[in-house]
Design goal:
The chain contains 11 helices and 17 strands. The protein is of the alpha/beta class. Strand 13, helix 8 and strand 14 form a beta-alpha-beta unit. It binds zinc ion.
Length: 344
C-alpha cells in the first residue's frame, strides 16, 4: 500500500512517500480502515524528530487522526460493516489495568497513541481496535471529521474534566491558532465561560473571535501576561490552558487569580520551566496535567462535533505524498486550525 514513512529521525525532509508498505492485518478485536483523510498533529512532528525514550522500529508510519471506511473486520468484531464511515479515538488502552477499569483510559499502564507507538494513519490502510470507532454523519466531510479527534478530545478533557470550568469563569487559551486551541475556544464558550486568547497576528485573532473568543490579546503590542492582568482588573483569570510550555509557564501562573488552575497538555517550546514555589502555595494554585481522553470523553465531544455545535477548523489540505511539505508548513506556524492529508 501507499504510505508516508519516517526512515530516520529529522526535519520534514526525512518523510518518504512509499508504495510498497505491507497492508496491515486486523487482530480479533480490530478493524482495518481505508483511510480517506489523515489529520496532522504537533505530536507527529515530535515523533518525526525522534522521542529519546521511544523505542520505535524504523521505518515508521506516523499519524494519529483518521477518517475513513471500514475495510476489513477482525474475527470477533460485530456492529460494523465494510464501507461504514468512521473516525477513531487514537488512544489505545489495555482495558484491564486498574486505570482502564476505572474508566481512565489515558492513564492506562500501557497507554499508546496511534502513530506514536504503533503504525499510524499516513497510509492507505490503518488498523485500530473496533471499540475506538465512531460512525460519522453522512453529510460530514472527510476532512472535517479527520480534523477533530485528537484536538477535540484533548481540549475537552483539559477544560471539562481536568479544569472543570464553570459558566461565568474567565478562561485564557494561549496561542489561538493551534488545533487544540481552536477546539478549546469553542468548548470554553459552549461551557459559558469568557474566553481570552493570544496571538501575534490580528488576522488570527479575528478568526478566534469568529469561533467565540471574547477578549483578544496581540502579544506583539503588549506582553500578554501584563495585558491579561490589566484586562481582569488585576484579579487574573480562573483557568489558563498552556500548551506552549517553557516559554510561557511562568507568565501563565502569574496570569491566574488566587486559587486558579493551570492546565497543561504539552510544551511545544520546551519542558523544563522555572517555578517559584512560594507563588504556588501563597496563591494556592493548581497545576494540572492532561493527556488525550477516555472513550467516554471522546464520544461526548464528538457528539457535539457531529451536531455541528463544535466545528473542526481545517486550514489546508495536502495530498498524502506531500506530507513533508505539510509538516514544513505546520512548523512555520502560519496556519489557523488543522492541516490534513488527503489519501487518494
Ligand atoms: Zn489499561
Amino acid at each position: 500500500m501507499k504510505a508516508v514513512v519516517i526512515p530516520q529521525y529529522g526535519g520534514p525532509e526525512v518523510l518518504r512517500f512509499v508504495e510498497d508498505q505491507p497492508e496491515p492485518v486486523p487482530g480479533p478485536d480490530e478493524v482495518v480502515l481505508h483511510v480517506h483523510v489523515a489529520g496532522i498533529n504537533h505530536l507527529d512532528l515530535t515523533v518525526r524528530k525522534g522521542i529519546p525514550t521511544s523505542k520505535l522500529t524504523l521505518p515508521h508510519i506516523p499519524g494519529a487522526d483518521v477518517a475513513g471506511e471500514v475495510a476489513k473486520l477482525g474475527s470477533d468484531v460485530s456492529g460494523f460493516e465494510p464501507g461504514d464511515r468512521v473516525v477513531a479515538n487514537p488512544g489505545l488502552s489495555c482495558g484491564r489495568c486498574e486505570f482502564c477499569l476505572a474508566g481512565e483510559d489515558s492513564l492506562c499502564k500501557d497507554y499508546k497513541i496511534l502513530g506514536e507507538h504503533v503504525p499510524g494513519t499516513y497510509a492507505e490502510y490503518v488498523v485500530v481496535p473496533a471499540r475506538n470507532l465512531l460512525p460519522i454523519p453522512v453529510d460530514m466531510e472527510w476532512t472535517t471529521a479527520a480534523a477533530a479527534p485528537l484536538a477535540f478530545m484533548t481540549a475537552w478533557r483539559l477544560l471539562v474534566t481536568r479544569a472543570a470550568v464553570r459558566p461565568g469563569e474567565d478562561v485564557l487559551i494561549l496561542g489561538a491558532s493551534s488545533g487544540v486551541s481552536t477546539a478549546a475556544i469553542q468548548i470554553a464558550k459552549l461551557a459559558g465561560c469568557t474566553v481570552y486568547t493570544t496571538s501575534s497576528s490580528d488576522a488570527k485573532l479575528k478568526r478566534a473571535k469568529e469561533l467565540g473568543a471574547d477578549v483578544l490579546v496581540n502579544y506583539k503590542e503588549m506582553p500578554w501576561g501584563k495585558a491579561v492582568w490589566e484586562l481582569t482588573g488585576k484579579r487574573g483569570v480562573d483557568v489558563v490552558l498552556d500548551h506552549v510550555g517553557e516559554a510561557t509557564f511562568k507568565d501563565s501562573l502569574r496570569a491566574l487569580r488566587k486559587g486558579g488552575r493551570l492546565v497543561i497538555p504539552g510544551g511545544t517550546t520546551g519542558t523544563l520551566p522555572q517555578i517559584d514555589l512560594r507563588y504556588l502555595w501563597w496563591r494556592q494554585l493548581s497545576v494540572l496535567g492532561s493527556t488525550m481522553a477516555n472513550q467516554r470523553e471522546f464520544e461526548a465531544v464528538m457528539k457535539l462535533v457531529f451536531m455541528g455545535r463544535l466545528k473542526p477548523i481545517v486550514d489546508r489540505v495536502f495530498p498524502l505524498r506531500e506530507a513533508a511539505a505539510a509538516h514544513a508548513y505546520l512548523e512555520k506556524g502560519e496556519q489557523f486550525g488543522k492541516v490534513v492529508l488527503s489519501v487518494p
